[in-house]
Amino acid sequence: PKLPYFSGEFTHYGNECAQLLAELDPDFNLKCFHFDHTQPQLKDLPEFDRILFFTCHSIEQVSRLGSAFFEAVARAAKHTECFHFEPFGFQMSIQGQNETQVDKDQGEYFTRQGWNQDLFSQLIHSHNRQIIELKYLGKNLMGGDYRNPTSLAIGWRSIALARQPKGNR
C-alpha cells in the first residue's frame, strides 16, 4: 500500500479518470501528472534508484514519437525498465515481405487516423545507440479490434545513461 504509483497522461480528462479509479481503493497511492510523449518531462518524479514504466495504447496516437521519449525515460532513474503494450506490429513488417493482411489493415488504419508510425523504428534506433537494451519483441499478441492488435516490447532497460540533475530530466 505504501508503494507510490505515477500516471503520466497527456489529457486533463485522462488524469481525472486515473485519479477517479485510484480513489476506489484508499490504499492505492497514485499521483497524476501531465505527460507529452514528444516533449517528455519527468523532472517532477521523486528520485528513485529503480523505476518500472509501462505504456498501454498511449503511444498509438502520437504520430511521430522521436527519440526524446526513450532518452528521458532511460534517464529517470539509475535502473529503469519499461514494458510497452502498444499496437506496432505492422511497423515490424517490410512492405511486401512477411506482411500479413493484419499488417496491411493496421498500417492503412493507422495512416488514415494519423497515428503512430515510428515506435518500432525508435525502439530499434535507441537499442542500437545503446540508450536501452531491448529484451523482447512480440508481434500482435493480443487481439481486440482486428485493425489494432497489441504488440509487446518487453523489458527494455536503460543501459548507458546516468541520472541527470533534477532540472535536466
Describe this structure in words.
The protein has helices spanning 12-22, 68-74, 101-113, 119-128, and strands spanning 4-9, 29-34, 50-56, 79-86, 132-133, 136-142, 150-158. It has 4 helices and 7 strands; from the N terminus they run βαββαβααβββ. It has 169 residues and is of the alpha/beta class. Strands 3, 4, 5, 6 and 7 form a 5-stranded mixed β-sheet that branches.
Keywords:
27% strand; 5-stranded mixed β-sheet; 4 helices; 7 strands; alpha/beta; globular; two-stranded parallel sheet; 169 residues
Main sheet attributes: strand count, strand direction, barrel closure: 5 strands, mixed
> What's the SSE pattern?
EHEEHEHHEEE
Class by SSE composition: alpha/beta
Query: Averaging pLDDT over every residue, what do you get?
Result: 88
Short description:
The chain has helices spanning 12-22, 68-74, 101-113, 119-128, and strands at residues 4-9, 29-34, 50-56, 79-86, 132-133, 136-142, 150-158. The chain has four helices and seven strands.
